[in-house]
Amino acid sequence: MKISFRTWLEEIASEKAFGQRDKTQKADVGKLLGFKTNLMRYSQGSFATLYQHPRRKDRLIKITAHREDVQNLVRAQALNSPNIPRLFDWEDGKKTKELPSLNSIAIMVEKIDGHPMEYTTGDFYELSLDGRFGLASDWIATGGTPRQKSIMEKYGLNNDLEHDKLARLMATLRDLKKFYRIDLSDFQDNIMDAGGRYVLVDMGF
């Protein structure tokens, strides 16, 4: 079976990122980042490991070899959107810190309390009207198309709060694509439901 060049590149990048993630978890990352105490692991994803910041309970330290995720997240800060996790500067005023020994990058990111969104990637794509995020946002803000309504009802989420949350998220996805050419695909695993808002916790391919 033939695969596209992009798919091949993504598979190679994924394999490399998995290896770097495992290497990170064996290292003393607290020492590498200049902290005097060991960092407590908070969670891990396919590519990244998250640690609790030792002095700020509202922040996490994300270490990843997935540079596209970090680059997109840094650029997306300009939107000042509640759907984008806030990044915090390191002591040198920069948003990122290179960890050459791990071939990875460390960022300080807002700690999001919530759970993965309910929608599957397929259902979310239908909610987005096949990636027409601006149009989807406009429709959902007024209650949704018949198909959008049926999907929200399927999850028991056809209500005013959900309409507001989804409309804002779709508008953010529209702006990411329009202004930064950031086009996400794996929605199910990368969108967190934080109660009053949805948050894009991973912005890689």
The separation of the N and C termini measures 22 Å
CATH architecture annotation of the largest domain: 2-Layer Sandwich
Q: How many discrete structural domains?
A: 2
The SS-based structural class is alpha+beta
The 3D shape can be described as elongated
Radius of gyration over all CA atoms, rounded: 18 Å
Largest beta-sheet details: 6 strands, antiparallel
The number of helices is 8
Rounded average pLDDT? 90
Tally of extended strands? 9
What is the chain-wise order of helices and strands?
HHEEEHEEEEHHHHHEE
CATH topology of the largest domain: Phosphorylase Kinase, domain 1
Proportion of residues in β-strands:
15-25%
Helix proportion? 40-55%
- CATH C-level class of the largest domain is Alpha Beta
Provide a descriptive summary of the structure in words.
By secondary structure, the chain is of the alpha+beta class. It has 2 domains: 5-110, 2-Layer Sandwich (Phosphorylase Kinase, domain 1); 115-200, no CATH class. Helices cover 42% and strands 18% of the residues. The protein has helices at 5-26, 29-32, 67-76, 121-127, 133-141, 146-154, 160-180, 187-190, and strands spanning 40-44, 48-52, 59-64, 87-88, 96-99, 104-110, 115-116, 191-193, 198-200. Strands 1, 2, 3, 4, 5 and 6 form a 6-stranded antiparallel β-sheet that branches. The chain has a 3-stranded antiparallel β-sheet with strand order 7-8-9. A hairpin with a 3-residue loop joins strand 1 (40-44) and strand 2 (48-52). Helix 5 (133-141) packs antiparallel against helix 7 (160-180). The longest helix has 22 residues, at 5-26. It is elongated, with a radius of gyration of 18 Å. The two termini are 22 Å apart.
